[in-house]
Amino acid sequence: xxxxxxxxxxxxxxxxxxxxxxxxxxxxxxxxxxxxxxxxxxxxxxxxxxxxxxxxxxxxxxxxxxxxxxxxxxxxxxxxxxxxxxxxxxxxxxxxxxxxxxxxxxxxxxxxxxxxxxxxxxxxxxxxxxxxxxxxxxxxxxxxxxxxxxxxxxxxxxxxxxxxxxxxxxxxxxxxxxxxxxxxxxxxxxxxxxxxxxxxxxxxxxxxxxxxxxxxxxxxxxxxxxxxxxxxxxxxxxxxxxxxxxxxxxxxxxxxxxxxxxxxxxxxxxxxxxxxxxxxxxxxxxxxxxxxxxxxxxxxxxxxxxxxxxxxxxxxxxxxxxxxxxxxxxxxxxxxxxxxxxxxxxxxxxxxxxxxxxxxxxxxxxxxxxxxxxxxxxxxxxxxxxxxxxxxxxxxxxxxxxxxxxxxxxxxxxxxxxxxxxxxxxxxxxxxxxxxxxxxxxxxxxxxxxxxxxxxxxxxxxxxxxxxxxxxxxxxxxxxxxxxxxxxxxxxxxxxxxxxxxxxxxxxxxxxxxxxxxxxxxxxxxxxxxxxxxxxxxxxxxxxxxxxxxxxxxxxxxxxxxxxxxxxxxxxxxxxxxxxxxxxxxxxxxxxxxxxxxxxxxxxxxxxxxxxxxxxxxxxxxxxxxxxxxxxxxxxxxxxxxxxxxxxxxxxxxxxxxxxxxxxxxxxxxxxxxxxxxxxxxxxxxxxxxxxxxxxxxxxxxxxxxxxxxxxxxxxxxxxxxxxxxxxxxxxxxxxxx
Length: 738
Description:
With about 750 residues, the protein is α+β, with helices and mostly antiparallel strands. It contains 25 helices and eleven strands. The longest helix is centred in the C-terminal third of the chain and has 35 residues, at about 510-545. Strand 8 (about 460) and strand 9 form a beta hairpin.
């Protein structure tokens, strides 16, 4: 592989006009496709194989025309202090608002609070339910504007009016912190390279890669039913890995120049060595993201595949566009240790007599491996403690900022009708196989009414055929609470007895039940997913490092870092530690997909640093150095770059903490803290400590396995033969005047 990538790097350097033109053309094509594509919103949410989904599908077939997946809005009215909603003026205002809301072309139904008994017991709060034909993200602007205008008109009469539901669902905003993250990455690159040109290359190529990836996702969003969150996550991951991959290749290029190589030769060797690490690091990320498909949740599968595609683009750009741009830059990219004229007057940096920080740290760890190992494990273990109290759920309007009308409507409904009103349970009774459907409906209604934790049960509402009915159940607890989850399981548990007695099947659905089933499905899939992803990556790393213990150590270190990161997420978003600093206005359960998504993404990113850092160690070991010295050599050449890469990735992920979407905020924080733990504790401390304790055994591989495994030559051993045949460097001489 090293030889092939070496030739590819030289070709891209030599034919830089052609290489650059290809990527510019792809970016233009993707941009045109995105600009001409229809706007897509949230992808459809389905959970195949769950009871909630089965009930939802049953409603679609037995209640045609009800638009079960249509948008809903709850317009909540609150009377001024000392007044009631039934007062003449207040009632007239509400009735006028209901009349206006019902005139929309996409509206299927509007309920009058006074006719539907949707007024609180104290008479101060009422709500009107609006049902639409299409989903919230498919609603026309005219329908949304009419909804807002009706609420605003009612406010003019003195009522407090807020709108809940998904009809006013908005695309999440990341805020200015995303730009700050990229700015920090730029500063780190300038400090690392000592050159504005060299620092600009990773940023430029990362932006091109993300532009192609996100534009392609946008262009295909409507066709493939991709939600707005998909492109945000692809941008987050694509930016981070795109900058890091380019950083490693540019760093290796400057190191090759420092050894006196011609520029085309240095570009080829940089791609042949660091590029090999980029390929395998990218493969681990792609495996982890595509592996999300084993969960069998379409939304999660699409998110993973889209992000994996962006990572693949980042790898290809690093291998081809970076050497092409290095060709354009010419002598403006200086050898390692030499600063640009702007930052250092073009003078070579003074060579200090003492070793660099990476060398000193690695020497310390090699001398005290056991102490460093114990300290690191205990520290990560302490950070992981909060993960033991992890509670999973999906965010609802109750997790929105208090500045939003959806959150204020949620709070008003809780105040007037109880916390369970924001997440009603929809019980579907399928009596097609029953001899007495009406009796079955009554039986289910009466049994649920007597259950503990139930506030109210609506009368059964049968379909036209009379073989299926819907019953709405209001719990006395919040939709995301454990008590509500227990109630769902209780209702489902009683379904067996009802079926035996009446022949009717009882199913529970609705947003709350969907969330519960979603969390359970993710929990059930976590272990198989972990086994699949870690297993495939373990095999891949055996090929890369030609060792059994090094990949095993990498996997165990990853588990430590991801558990510590989950503990930090629980401490902030569930316990409320430092919540104000992170902009978390409402603590609650951790998003259901967070653990499995973090496992997938963090594993891929963790293997990046493992491959980049340990590859330099193995390279030194293969070239004859003793195990301890190889560790120090690996840190001498790789610690500064890996540190810069980690800081950049943390900065990029942290930029998404400013998002208005709670899911994006949580993922941004989780990935940032996970990279911090993995890069600076696991890879920088635990990895050299374990390798120092293992010595030569770290690189042990059974002879029979050594013969079977393909030799991918990540260390660039095949390139050493080229040292005996120095190239003339014609193109380098041509660039002398650049």
